[in-house]
Amino acid sequence: MLSILASSLLASLAVAQQIGTFTPEVHPPITYKTCTAYSGCTTHQGSVTLDANYRWLHTASGQTCNPAGFNRTICPDADTCGETCALDGADYAGTYGVTTNGSALSLLFGNGGARVYLLDDTDNYVNFHVMNQEFTFDVNVSNVPCAYNGALYFSEMPPDGGISATNKAGAAYGTGYCDSQCPTGINFVNGTTNVDGTLGSCCNEMDLWEANSLSTQLTPHPCNVTGEFICTGTGCSDLCDPSGCEFNPFRMGNESFYGPGDIVDTTKVMTVVTQFLTDNNQASGTLSSIRRFYVQDGKVIPNSVVNLSGLPKVNSITSDYCTDKMNVLGDSTAFDVHGGLAQMGQSLARGAVLVISLWDDLGGGMTWLDGLAGDASQPGTLRGPCTAANVTSDPATSVTFSNIRVGDINSTFSQVHFGQCGGQFYDGPVLCADPYSCVFSNPYYSQCL
Ligand SMILES: *[C@@H]1O[C@H](CO)[C@@H](O)[C@H](O)[C@H]1NC(C)=O
Ligand SMILES: *[C@@H]1O[C@H](CO)[C@@H](O)[C@H](O)[C@H]1NC(C)=O
Ligand SMILES: *[C@@H]1O[C@H](CO)[C@@H](O)[C@H](O)[C@H]1NC(C)=O
Ligand SMILES: *[C@@H]1O[C@H](CO)[C@@H](O)[C@H](O)[C@H]1NC(C)=O
Ligand SMILES: *[C@@H]1O[C@H](CO)[C@@H](O)[C@H](O)[C@H]1NC(C)=O
Ligand SMILES: *[C@@H]1O[C@H](CO)[C@@H](O)[C@H](O)[C@H]1NC(C)=O
Ligand SMILES: *[C@@H]1O[C@H](CO)[C@@H](O)[C@H](O)[C@H]1NC(C)=O
Ligand SMILES: *[C@@H]1O[C@H](CO)[C@@H](O)[C@H](O)[C@H]1NC(C)=O
Ligand SMILES: *[C@@H]1O[C@H](CO)[C@@H](O)[C@H](O)[C@H]1NC(C)=O
């Protein structure tokens, strides 16, 4: 009995997701900031790591384990595969088009884009807590055409990437991905090799930004699970809301709000602010509204207001907006069934990992984001100006995200009344919230009055 236990323990410990060393893993460094009202921001040194699925997975002699799906000679079963195959370091710039510079991260599409995660200085994913906070970044989408998507979002992934006796790679090698689509294509799931693609990896997902230069979408995707949840077969259905309750200005009736030369001009860099407001103005509260602002050329631009008959004239995501959208536009009820904004908020309160990716869908086009998704005679089916004629392959597609910052409401892009808005050594927003303006006091201090 004991020896059976001991040998099965040995066997299970040997089933490890190995680390390969053909290319040394050097995470591209990037800075990000945390900010507080009144006193400005603190800079942190982090880095990015490439998702495990994008990495070269190979045997000790350098044979690829998954040339087109898993090679069943090398990987007849999950245990053998885990013992035999290793995740290698990444040539970030050369192979994946991933480069950083200070606070900026650029993704060049090249051969197929990339998906990266933000790491802290201990090689764990930064675990963001954004309830009653705002999350802000600058983005240059000018070079992202129809059918491409430069995305920045939160997933409730394990902050250590699920590192364990059976996963030696962990967050440093980009393991532990999950999202609200419960993807079944993840090669390693919780230390098990997903050779048959039967395992799905589900978790709550908050899409702050899915966009190209033609359309943009902000989308909470709640799930009925806590953390990363591994599902199998039919057990994967109905755990999450894969469509989400999105806000897309174009779809919501304002076709001239976001795009080249529009009010939010996608030919220029813009700042994107997303606020997670709660019912009691505390991090402990229930998520009640997800609010968006843009800042461009020193001007704060509130999100567009919904202009579709039957829908509330709001410019943020609230429970009423989501429920009315289901009723009026016939959107999926999955959002409410999976707990809606409240459930999304519970996930965000537990913490979220930052995911940044650049991907394409040249097959059908990315119509859910930028084109016609449904019957053109029905309201709310046109989500952007792109048509099949606009879908062309462009490996030179690129996106740059920079100045990632998180903090108290209004602390990352404009200051509150009496807050500091300038001065030598000050590192924080220089705009003041309406109706205040920045008043010079002395060379070390300006204040919103
Ligand atoms: C799978 O691996 C075996 C054993 O190394 C090899 O002979 C075969 O060519 C591989 N198949 C593919 C499609 O790479
Ligand atoms: C990095 O950014 C700095 C300042 O933002 C700029 O001067 C420099 O040219 C950039 N370097 C590269 C390689 O893009
Ligand atoms: C934005 O990206 C485009 C395309 O890559 C580039 O030409 C332009 O210089 C970038 N703008 C800024 C302000 O960095
Ligand atoms: C991962 O595997 C460990 C050990 O088998 C188990 O305790 C844990 O619950 C699993 N995690 C998930 C998310 O399934
Ligand atoms: C689009 O949004 C802008 C800015 O909020 C507003 O001025 C304009 O009237 C809106 N247009 C439509 C058609 O809703
Ligand atoms: C709402 O859209 C209609 C056209 O569908 C337009 O005539 C009207 O000006 C828009 N309202 C606002 C406030 O922009
Ligand atoms: C998901 O959670 C919601 C409330 O949080 C509940 O109403 C619903 O029945 C749950 N669905 C499943 C499939 O567990
Ligand atoms: C899409 O293609 C049509 C026809 O060539 C063109 O008129 C239009 O400007 C294109 N739109 C975009 C967003 O590229
Ligand atoms: C944040 O700024 C907005 C817009 O200027 C303002 O309506 C709101 O009251 C401010 N909230 C806080 C907490 O300062």
Keywords:
single chain, 449 residues, mainly beta, 1,4-Beta-D-Glucan Cellobiohydrolase I, Chain A, 2 domains, 16-stranded mixed beta sheet, three-stranded mixed beta sheet, 7 helices, 30 strands, globular, binds 2-acetamido-2-deoxy-beta-D-glucopyranose
Low-confidence stretches: 1-14
Number of helices: 7
Q: What share of residues are in beta strands?
A: 25-35%
What Rg is obtained from the alpha carbons, in whole angstroms?
23 Å
Mean pLDDT: 93
Helical coverage, percent range: 10-25%
Cα(first) to Cα(last) distance is: 76 Å
Could you tell me which ligands this complex binds, including any ions or cofactors?
2-acetamido-2-deoxy-beta-D-glucopyranose
Which CATH-level-2 architecture of the largest domain?
Distorted Sandwich
Instruction: List how many beta strands DSSP finds.
Output: 30
Largest sheet: 16 strands, mixed
Any overview of this molecule?
The model is unreliable at 1-14 (pLDDT under 50). This protein starts with a helix and ends with a strand. The protein folds into 2 domains: 28-50 and 94-412, Distorted Sandwich (1,4-Beta-D-Glucan Cellobiohydrolase I, Chain A); 413-449. The strands form 7 sheets. It has a 16-stranded mixed beta sheet that branches. Strands 1-5-4 form a 3-stranded mixed beta sheet. It has 7 helices and 30 strands. The chain is mainly beta and 449 residues long. The chain is 12% helix and 33% strand. Bound molecules: 2-acetamido-2-deoxy-beta-D-glucopyranose (NAG) (9 copies).
